Amino acid sequence: MPTSSPSRIVRFASSVALSALGLAPALAQTQPTAATTLTVQVNKPGAPVSKNMYGLFFEDINFAADGGLYPELVKNKSFEIPGQHFIGWNAIGGAAALAAYTVSSEKPISATNNHFVRLTAATASPDAGLINEGFRGMGIKQDAEYTFSVYLRRGPGSVSGLQVTLEEEARRGAGPEVAPSGRVLAQTTITGLTGEWKKYTAVLKASGTAPKARLKLTLEGAGTLDMDVVTLFPKDTWNKRENGLRTDLVQLLKDMNPGFLRFPGGCIVEGRTLTERYQWKETIGEVNSRVPLVNRWNMEFRHRSTPDYFQSFGLGFFEYFQLSEDIGAEPVPILNVGMACQFNSAELAPITAAGGPSVSEATGHNHADDDPTLETFIQDALDLVEFANGPASSPWGAKRVAMGHPAPFNLKYIGIGNEQWGPQYLERYEPFAKAVKAKYPGINIVSSAGPAPAGDLFDKATARLRELKAEVIDEHYYASPEWFRQNVGRYDNYPTTGSKIFAGEYAAQTVGIASPDNKNSWDTAISEAAFMTGLERNADKVVMASYAPMLAHVDAWQWTPNMIWFDNLRSYGTPNYYVQKLYALNKGTTMLPVQRADNGKNGQDNLFSSAVADDKTGEIVVKLVNYSPQARPVTVNLQGVKKLGKTGKATVLASNDLNAVNSLDQPRNVAPKDESFKVGSAAVVTYTLAPNSFTVLRIPGKH
């Protein structure tokens, strides 16, 4: 994920500048007066379309994990955030009813969960306790059930229980004060306290719906009570798992029929420093033992500062693999290559160091203060493949089995580095890739071409990675809608042999890179649809593509635009989401060449097209983008088609307003609509494209 570097904004913002580099030939803006004839060469099939062609990019940005896909409602459940142990927690009434509330590490639950809160009330009071605010509130649904759990240990005094209240966030009155409590949605009392740590569980059933509720915990009686690992988890999770994921968001992802899921990022893979890097081994095993880490995005943008943004890792690598399996996507984990984010500290792990761990050495959990060398990162990669694919008899395979997944995850791809550039990356990539291929020759390696789609660093990285026979080179581009339309032929002259291309992160920007004013407008989405015809036409070179970022909380985002937006209860797909979905649902199996009768290039007169055969359904699929305010008639000749059917289906995504957007209240303002059409007996389809439209024609016929 790019950051707000001014040089990068300049690099991407101007499609004119990119044209000057020879990347974007100007396209004629005149509109045709007669039907444009396209010939789909059904009898001259091209390359197979990768089954992983269109997929998903996940990064924990915009509260995508905690507060989003991962539905734990309690923020900072274990008081483990270094130096900020009370993030998310506030004493009721400013602690007027509490004699003290402090964080302690005296005889904790475990070595990894070694902080807890100690509450002391001098006298009994209904306000002696704490409130957890959740992630911009807690979304609560009427009649839904929520599992509350907590570890408690009674101290001196006569505390007899802990009252648990789920209440609607109090609304502000005319003045600045906030009422101490709101409407009660559910309540219970935990009793049977002892002088030793013990886990208590209760189920709360909500009596009402509230988009911004909160959890209130108060002491019954006076005295001292120790408390840790406070959780509130909805029972309604994907596949009803205990540590499951938010159902509406997973459903939106599954509905796309994605070919892959790239995770966990994005720049959080790198961290601002190596100390803050993402370490997958810290994200598996018992959920309550996973140590939280600062999120790389919490202070990246001053205009969207989010100092309470941390990663709990409740959604960790095991859950990512499980999600990939659930939605039928190939897992594509991306690992740190020994480099912190180059837009931040640019800290480097040494390539070799005396006394460092050897590549063959089996290691357990990493620790941030280990001063890791490159060998540490390589070993992490080798161990990850074993965790995903190894048998129960292997050390890391055994950990996967212990977490409840005896079968291998069948990992085929691994990414080395996220978005690194320059000689520092290449000199680390080469030994890294060599070690992975030596032990796991069947693993396909995804490599980085850097954050920009052009320039000296991009060219050098691409050339060297091709020399090293990298299987997949990851290219990123965030640019104006015009850039996407003008660069539809980007891959036409790429080599057909050797390394393949992963368009790993892309999105059209209405204003500029990292601008808070970017919108998920129809203009951005239709421009991406136009560009994707170029990806499909080059299926022999491009094997994977994903929009980025994927998810954003409407009250807690750092970056725009994003594919799916949500609040604590609702979610919606943007026009960009529907473009991605239509491509994924209609990717077909074999690319078919498309020619214009006037020998014009793809995109001439702002008409963009591509076609595939779908051998599974026996259909020809034609994708057409009309970036024009006028309706446009087209004639599609199906050259050499066999067993032509009489009726086809058109799916149309269109809006007369290029600035149109979707929203929580109008989630389908711009959304696909289906209609049928007649197929001519002479293997000819005549169809009129709506103004500013992306149309998918499915025609019964075989090649």
UniProtKB/TrEMBL annotation:
Pfam families: Alpha-L-AF_C, ASD1_dom. It is an enzyme of class 3 (hydrolase). It comes from the Bacteria. Residues 504-693 form the Alpha-L-arabinofuranosidase C-terminal domain. GO terms for biological process: L-arabinose metabolic process. Coiled coil: none annotated. This is non-reducing end alpha-L-arabinofuranosidase.
